[in-house]
Amino acid sequence: MTSIGTAATQIPVSAVIPMLIAIDNRDYLQFKELEKTFVDQHSVEVWQDVFNFRLLPALDQQSKKWLLQAWCSEGFVNI
Question: Taking the model in full, what pTM does it have?
Fold first, then answer.
């Protein structure tokens, strides 16, 4: 296991729960703020491991779809 993978396994569940709550509430702005705080505290590499191997697998299909749609629509500007 890499040092990043090891660091990701050391992140307490209590750091992930608020993100799950933001997703459940369909509050993308809150999720992004929590994501930014997490990256500032731990690094983007650790965030990638936590997101891909702890957070994303815990989501139901509707939540995964909502998160993907919210993420994709973030970069689009309607004129």
Answer: 0.82
Q: SS3 of 78, please? A: coil
Cβ–Cβ under 8 Å, residues 8 and 53:
yes
Residues 20, 66 contacting (CB under 8 angstroms)? no
Structure tokens at 17: 């729960």
- The two most distant CA atoms of the chain are separated, in Å, by 47
CA–CA dist 23, 27 (Å, integer): 6
pLDDT, residue 74, reads: 76
For residue 55, which of 10, 79, 23 has the smallest C-alpha distance? 23
Residue 51 corresponds to which tokens in the numbers above? 């997101």
Nearest to 62 by CA among 34, 26, 27, 21: 26
